[in-house]
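Question (not urgent): is this output format expected?
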Amino acid sequence: MQRGIQGYTIPQGIGNERYGTFVPHPLPPDPAIVWSNQLRNKFDQAILALGRLDSMAMLLPDTTLFLYTYVRKEAVLSSMIEGTQSSLTDLLLFELDEVPGVPLDDVREVSNYVAAMERGIMRIRDGFPISLRLIREIHAMLLQQGRGADQTPGEFRRSQNWIGGTRPGNAIYVPPPANLVLDCMGDLEKFINDIPEQTPVLLKAALVHVQFETIHPFLDGNGRLGRLLITLILLQQGFLHQPLLYLSLYFKTHRNRYYELLTLVRTEGRWEEWLDFFAEAVIITATQAVEAAQQLLELLEQDRLRITQLQRIRLSCLHVHRALSERPISNARWLVERTGLTTMTVNKALVQLQALGIVQPHTAQKRNRTYAYTDYIAVLNRGTELPPPA
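Got this back:
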């Protein structure tokens, strides 16, 4: 359905530079969403896919083994959409105080995303509502250091921003003027918290994402925070018990269509097309997450069985293997801290695991060597591969 423009434009100008800032109407869309049989069926499938993902997460023997790397995979993917060149391996090395082979600003940006995500999840679990205060707090973590640290972290913008182009006059899109950001975000906060009426959770997450990107309330970090809000809404509303659904891989794969639909919603009110795309993203992403978790569980069990066949140092190898499944790129120092084993025992276990082909040295040096649980990383890395150099 084409409703026409979903807001109004305020003419602006500096000297000879003329442009218009777009102010969106508050949610929900008006006229209301038209639920065709196809769209309703698609949302039903998405809800079922989320239910399967949540059930799988509840049945995992130890969700901590997956959450650490799942959260980091999403951080890498969401940051990739913004142009960073940091991989999952780079991030894991950075967290071991190793210097990755990419610009530090890139990997810091991804590390900030992890911290912001974990802060948001912690607050939600502590009972905090998704409010402007929480959004600003998460943003402050997102831009706490490195690139973007000078873009007023944790504060709504006080100046005009734009998307695409070199200035507002030739930009692809110019969000609301700074003096209206707080009003727009106040309306969004009410909608998130079901004021004046309740909105189905998955529909709410889909609508909020577009509205947040349209308002673009910060000078930097809007895309990453807007994608994170999807997961926080699903967690806060009890749709998911663990943060295992991340849509950045789908948005990255279909980036052109993603940006096209954001524009079509603003200019023509084609919400139904966006909702169809969003539901498809949920179905595919949730299904892939279930499959990846099953593959990781099978891999862990197969490798455990191989380790139990060892005649000596079997128990120590099992301890090290479990630690590696939690953090699949590690060094002896971290493994000693995590397992409580001695350095000598950890090193002997790593030699055995390498002989079995479970781990491989990630660095060439003999001292302070880093090891990678290669098959585990291969499952997680799907979709996060960096493009080849130009």
